[in-house]
Amino acid sequence: MPSTPGYCDTESPFPYEYYTFHRIATDIVTLLSTLGIPQAIYIGHDWGSVIVQRVALWYPEHVLAVAAICVPFVKPAESLVPLETLVKLFPNFAYQIWLMNPETERQLSDPKNIEKFLKGIFRIRGDPKVMWNADKDVLRKIGEPSLGRVWENQDVFQYYLRCFQRAGSMRGPLIYYKTRELNYKDELKLGSDPKIQCPAMFIGAERDPALPPILWKTQGWVPQLEMHTVKEGHWCLVADQGKEISPILQKWVRKVSQPTARL
User: Fold this and answer.
1) From the candidates 27, 46, 135, 240, which is the catalytic residue?
2) Is 193 designated active site?
């Protein structure tokens, strides 16, 4: 998938409307259609998980199957719940309060803080632990982390570091935490009982502190859902070089690629 707005070498347009799930889903479908790809199997992780779900909701005719990794299938909200209220129910989302704070954008305009943030967030099992899940003072809690093993190829780390430092801030990625109301208003148009009807799969990570198994139980609105669990954490796609998760993905893609799987 191409980088979405605000990431890597993309632009970071100012209107928040450029970052809504509907807008990005439309961009992706339009791009693939332009390339002569009318249908695809969509697989997403983290924000990508939410985005591919929305492609399946808004443009089902373009989706053969959809898989969500770590972030479970999240049904469009019936009412707008303030983030602060959500955090009281699920303290594991406390970090999002910091990420949506305007002051955080200023802090993450410092090249040194950008580097610290990237080092602190991207860690896998076996790395020294870093405290980051807080609603304020996240950078102070992160401290001075070492470079985690997820960045074993330091050229990859330097690429992402250059991208964000060249942009001057982490503004683009931070906007995704500021579009709750815009996404809610968009998704009212999907009706009172939207469903993802195509073949679907969710892979949950047991050691994901932000998205623990208790959050995986609300996916009954996806009728053809297949569920799997891996023992790694949030960055399960690269942990252990993907040895645990790759066979699950490969087997599922082979299955949903068969014409009979889509009848």
Assistant:
1) 46
2) no
Q: Which residues pair with 33 in a beta bridge?
A: none
Strand partners, 43: 67
Residue identified by tokens 């050229």 is: 155
Annotated catalytic residue, options 22, 45, 62, 234: 234
Q: Which residue pairs from 101-105 have beta carbons closer than 8 angstroms and sit at least 24 positions apart in sequence?
A: 101/136, 104/138, 104/174, 105/169, 105/170, 105/171, 105/174
Sign of torsion, CA 122 128 133 136? negative
With residue 173 as reference, give the H or E element that holds it: helix 171-175
Tens-place pLDDT, residues 59-113 = 999 999 999 999 999 999 999 999 999 999 999 999 999 999 999 999 999 999 9
Residue 241, sorted as left (phi over 0), alpha (psi -120 to 50) or beta, turns out to be left
240 annotated active-site: no
The burial class, CB within 10 Å (0-12 / 13-18 / 19+), for 112 is exposed
Residue 46 annotated among the catalytic residues of the structure: yes
The predicted-structure confidence for 34-68, as pLDDT tens digits, reads as follows 999 999 999 999 999 999 999 999 999 999 999 99
Q: Quickly count: other Cβ atoms within 10 Å of residue 103's Cβ.
A: 9
**Residue 201 is inside which H or E element, if any?**
strand 200-205
